[in-house]
Amino acid sequence: MFSRHDASYDQIREGVGSLCAAYPGTYWRDLDRERAYPTEFVEALTDAGYLAALIPEEYGGAGLDLKAACVILETIQRSGCNAGACHAQMYTMGTLLRHGSEEQKRHFLPRIAEGSLRLQAFGVSEPTCGTDTTRIRTTAVRDGDAYVVKGQKTWISRAEHSDLMLLLARTTPRDDVEKSTDGMSVFLVDLRDEIGKTVTIRPIETLMNHSTTEVFFDGTRVPAANRIGGEGQGFWHILDGMNAERVLIAAECIGDARYFVERASGYAAERQVFDRPIGQNQGVQFPIAEAHMETEAAALMAEKAASLFDDAKPCGAEANMAKYLAAEASWKAADVCMQTLGGFAFSTEYDVARKFRETRLYRVAPISTNLILSHVATHVLGMPKSF
Fold first, then answer.
1. Is pLDDT of 97 > 60?
2. Which structural domains are found in the chain, ordered by start?
3. Model-level pTM?
């Protein structure tokens, strides 16, 4: 287990890169073909301590900052691997560390850090509300020393491979609160004994292998001791997780973009057509150069957002802008890479097509580009809301 005392960002990058080298394209192609979960890869990251990067040392983690976590995820993606199988364990820490009780931290964090418990599921989205979080219908009703949860969540990745879920539910009906953001609470739900009883998980087949599901709760009892923070304050508590999520997803997109730029520029320098490398042609050079510049600009915004988060300063706008810019950069780099490799890009053995499908997700999730534009227009620039 590495710690903040012996791991610089460069050392983290080198260590993660070395670990990823043991999981080449053939490993991911086989998983993609079978729609299987990368268990061995996740276990290797856990054993090396990388998934416990944000957990303080006193609870068995590395005690690193969000910028270090960004380095880990960016390096995984840049190496051609996929952090989507395990990144939730990092961004859920934003809510648990800042709003969890000392008792909750001491009970859960050491086991999460060592890998005997997995926290990979983030239960917010629902089929009827999309990203309008205030309209969620999943309810948690107090019954003695527990809450009874009923409702449905959708687009929940990794629920089948997680022991715990960070769940947002309504504890007060929306019509009974003064502000629509009030009346929601956050819970840490132990799924292990409830699956097949009060919890039903149904896989959703998607464009990429992301272990995506819908989850149904039918009277699931959650101990009141597992509520994180104050009752009715869950929306504000979950924002720390969402801001971390946006920054970390931005880091993954930057890793993807750098992967595509490196593949495209390397191929362009070697591929001979008409007795000359295609990279000698400006029509090939310039799109790759543009993708590189946009990627590096997005990386600077992500670094700024991570710094604000680590300093516990407001970072909602910066986190959203970082995610937007990085997702756009990765998608452009992906398209440029596909165009540069031509027909070879469509062959699965080159891995570009797999990464192309994977990075497309982030223009939609965890928040769509249009909603980020709306957020910046109204909350940063002061224009009237359109909805």
1. yes
2. 9-114 (1.10.540.10), 119-235 (2.40.110.10), 236-380 (1.20.140.10)
3. 0.95
